[in-house]
Amino acid sequence: MSSEDKKKKAAPSPEKKSEGKDAKKKKRKKKKAGPIRKTFTVIGTVLLSLILIAVISVSIIAAALTLYVMQFREGTPIDIDLDSLDLAYTTFIYGEDKDGNEVELAKISRAANRIPVSIERIPRHVRDAFVYVEDERFYEHAGVDWKRTFGAFLNELTGGLIYKSRQGGSTITQQLIKNVSGDDDTSWDRKMREIFRANDLERYRSKDEILEAYLNCVGMGGSANGIQAASLKYFGKDVSELTLAEAACLAAIPKSPERLNPFADREANKERQETVLYAMYKNAAISEQQYEAAVNEELHFRDPEKDKTSNEIQNWYVDMVIRDVTLDLMELYGVEFDEASDMLYNGGYTVYTPIDIEMQEKIEAKYRDYSTFSDSVLSDPPQSAFIVLDYTGNVLAVAGGIGEKAGSNIFNRATMAKRQAGSCFKPLAGYAYSIENNLATWSTIIPDLPIEIPDENNPGKTRKWPTNYSSSSADNVWSGRSYFTFQALQRSLNTASARLVDGAGAPNVFEFVMNKFQISTLNAYDADLSPMSVGALTDGLYLRELVAAYQPFGNGGQYFAPTSYTHVIDPSGEIILQHNYTPIQSISEESAYVMNKLMQTVIEGPNGTGRAAKLENVPVVGKTGTTQDWHDTLFVGCTPDYVSGVWYGYDDNRKVKSGTYYGSAQLWKNIFGEIAEEGKTPQFPECDTVQELYYCSNTGLIASGSCPTGNTGYYKSTNIPPICTKCGGSAAAAVPEVTVPAVTTMSIEPIDIDSLTDELLDDDDE
What we know:
Blueprint: H1 3-10, H2 14-74, E1 91-96, E2 102-108, E3 113-114, H3 124-134, H4 146-157, H5 172-181, H6 188-204, H7 207-217, E4 224-225, H8 227-235, H9 244-251, H10 257-260, H11 266-282, H12 288-296, H13 316-333, H14 337-346, E5 350-356, H15 357-368, E6 383-389, E7 395-399, E8 418-419, H16 430-436, E9 445-447, E10 451-454, E11 462-465, E12 482-484, H17 485-491, H18 494-504, H19 506-517, H20 529-534, E13 541-542, H21 543-549, E14 558-559, E15 567-569, E16 575-578, E17 584-585, H22 589-604, E18 621-626, E19 632-638, E20 643-649, H23 664-677, E21 691-694, E22 712-715, H24 741-744
Helix pairs in contact: 3-9, 3-11, 5-6, 5-7, 9-11, 11-12, 13-14, 15-23, 16-18, 16-22, 17-22
């Protein structure tokens, strides 16, 4: 290769020279561009890193938040059962007037006046008024209106820049949950619980069910809760009768119940009412004409003063009903008294009673008048109670204390006080048992002498018991005379009662009284001679139970459990309590008739302790009772229509001073005499099988032609004494006596009825 060729080979071509120049230029440019690129690269890297960090952080936060929310949901009770919502509904108590019209006696509630009403009874325009002002997308969302929720959230963040007024994000479903759960704090936890519960509730409950519950519990100002209570409070009408304008007026209240209710601020309510109507118009729920007419309609509100009647003191009857229903709810549901009381006050029950409204008013008027009980002004007067039933156990009227009633649900001495019954117990025990079991007749002879009982203070010895009280002597006495059964009861001889019980056996009489007359306060210690003879019971008894036990003496022997209510209905319309009117045949019809006639002599007999109770137009059957040292005085009286009783004494068992009050029989007449005279039944029921026969005034046997007589007695067909032969008659028979040793071994003197005087007992036992 020539040197020239080598030079050519070594020399670059023009193209290569050009490429070299370009490369050098690029290199120079690259050197010049390096710092800028680096800067952008760093910035890009940083931004990318920040984005990645943000994404990762958000993902971590989202994951953590999701985990927290899931755990929060798992730990939060979210199910709301509308069938068992803890809503406080008002309970109503009703009676009937003399024309059979239903009368509201009382409405009771703990704090809220809430009356349940079904969605079917709430007109469409009433529902729409609440829906379109409170939650216009109610029928579209699933419990939470997210648009409204986020709008409310952003409005809070911007300090109200989005909306002029503070906006709430709660739907009707959420408001319902807040109202019924009481979960109303302002934390995010509460809001989350509310959202979960709302979503959950909407999954298994219809919109109508949710709306019904809401309209029944929403606050409507004061104690009124729910649409029905508000309708009655503000307009005095049922919700089904509300006009469009009235519905809008009520729908205006829930936003601020104490400020926007029409009794608080008519102008504010009117302004909000127009907002409600416009919301309905905007959502095509009403036409423009309806809108204009409703805006211009003049509303007529109920007098606010009438709403104050619920704060008045309840009468004695309502007090009794409330306590009785509460006790029966305790038994029905197995709960304590306080819980049962809450159930009654908050349960929205309807209680129906057998009250005689006019009679109740008359009895309470008598008890407000102190002259009913004494003809002089007493500085420290005793107390008293009265109760009257019909012959199927319905309590018709009651009074639990003298004077102005001090409050509602106070101590009622007729139904809550356990007091000694004294001689009022005698007809239920020895007399009724002996007549029922054919151990005695109208004219059985009983000596007024004590029996021998063990002396507790001297073991191995006996003492004479019991004594009788004499108003004419400082000492308790017995006369030594002999008396017929009707005379012994008429005079209320303790000795006669003791002999009857002793002859029958005190445990037998105890079982008889407890089972046949349903005295709940009896206990094992009462199965003894003293309690069954003279009513000295361990714990005493309730006046209501004592009076109810006298029913068989006026209605053919039947006992009906006393009741102050007939039935109780819950908000769903189901009867949850109903009184059972099935009677107990305590004694036979014949025994009841004989006892009735025996006890009439207490009122009409010359020595009857109850003579002051005698009425002009109707017969009275009754018995007085006085306990030791005059701690208690009682009278229980039966007329053909009613059985009633009065108690009088001091709550602390002090002695009632003699002469400072009317006797118990007179008290009964003062309180009830005029009412009893107005009764519709002139006579007690007859018993055709009981025989009215003359008895021998010497022996008590059925009189023969030779017997001194002129008096008649009443005898069961199964226990007619033999004909007397001791006065010259032809029939042979033994003298019927009480089957106790003291009687069978005693020489009984012939009784001259005309010679019997009033020197013995004019009143009752110890």
